[in-house]
Amino acid sequence: MGRDKEKEKQRQKRNPSEEVLNLLRSRLCNPNFIFRLFSDSPESNYSKLRFIISSSITEASNNSILLLGPRGSGKVAVLDLVLGDLLQEYPDAISVIKLNGLLHNDDISAFKEIARQLCVEHQLLFSKMASFDDNSQFMIAMLRECGLAHKTIAFVLDEFDLFAQGKQKLLYSLLDAMQSVTSQAVVIGVSCRMDADQLLEKRVRSRFSHRKLLFLPPSKEDIERLLDHLLALPLDSSLPHKYAAEFNGKLKATLADARFKQIIDTYLNSNFTVNHLMRFLFQAVSYMDLESGFLSLENFKTALSSIQRQPKMECIRDCSIAELYLLVCMRRLEVKEQNSYNFHSVMTEYKSIHDSFKTSDYYSRNVCLRAFEHLLQREIIRFTDTRGSSQSIDFRPVKLLISSAELHEGLKSYHSCPAMLLKLMDH
């Protein structure tokens, strides 16, 4: 009993920020919670897709539709949300068969997998030895039987464009079987190729409904709603009411800050999908200070700098001091409007720097040549000509593949960068 009381006291004393951190992380990893926000709007993809699939159940009709959009835009997440809701509402009136073009893009494996899933769904014995024709006929028979029983079969074809390769026998068989009065099915194709329907053969296209739902990047208004939906704390939970209210107040101030909006815009300019936004927010939440228990603007700044890949700056951090000197020399030559330079002219600039500033770092020509070759291998610089392979490396013109800003930031983040190099960049 004494131990239980002690544990209860420790639980009460525990900082609620740990509970908040777990809550926010679980939200950001839960597609149902993320996309449930948009399910109420009649114009949302959720509502449109639900209407199409539910009409097949309630009106005993056949439908087909394509969900198109870039990877990470929420196509599969919204589809799973819709199917989950319909399975709860009509538990005995719908069954779902899922195929993936990466796994089942040839007709034999596709029909076999359909037969296997139908057998599991309806508690039938599946034969691994069944032939292609046997599985094909079994699928058609099951479509007829389910139609007579007023049960809809939803065929989900992920990576739909891969099913459109080759003879498209699976697509033709599915869509042709759906022409029957007795069948009751819906075919849902999911693809990141916006022209997926144009890949269909004429005989398949004529049987397809040509319905398409486009999953576009979220608008700024949607992002604002989503941020509040994901990060704001409930006031009627086990969390202390005062703490939750203060957390929400500080969060509202951060989201309204122009600097925060600039951070979000910077990130989404290159990664504009819901999936990328979730990754960014998860990173920011993970940086939350558990002592204060609040999200701050610094958390989002740190997340932005850590999640953005900067391969060129990473390359600079792996360079030797000799290589850094050569890069700075090349940059100085460009500032002097000497757009064409080679190893020989870079060494001339390097010697000039040493003579003028009396640098303590001075490397022999052979060392610098090896450093120069290493920069070429790392593709931080490259030759500007393509026909001079027989020419001596000393005189072949080269070009920097990093900007002045990237070089300057790379030097500042270099652990043991000589102060002289930063001075040289400023001159």
Automatic annotation (TrEMBL):
Xref: InterPro entries: ATPase_AAA_core, ORC4, ORC4_C, P-loop_NTPase
Highest taxon listed in the record's lineage: Eukaryota
Example of a GO biological process term: DNA replication initiation
PANTHER family: ORIGIN RECOGNITION COMPLEX SUBUNIT 4
Protein name from the UniProt record: Origin of replication complex subunit 4
Pfam entry (one): ORC4_C
Primary role: Component of the origin recognition complex (ORC) that binds origins of replication. DNA-binding is ATP-dependent. The specific DNA sequences that define origins of replication have not been identified yet. ORC is required to assemble the pre-replication complex necessary to initiate DNA replication.
ATPase AAA-type core domain sequence ranges: 65-211
Origin recognition complex subunit 4 C-terminal domain mapped to chain residues: 227-410
Entry coiled-coil feature ranges: none
Keywords annotated in UniProt: ATP-binding, DNA replication, DNA-binding, Nucleotide-binding, Nucleus
GO molecular function: ATP binding; ATP hydrolysis activity; DNA replication origin binding
Subcellular localization(s) per the UniProt record: Nucleus
Native organism: Rubroshorea leprosula
GO CC terms, sorted: nuclear origin of replication recognition complex
Family: Belongs to the ORC4 family.
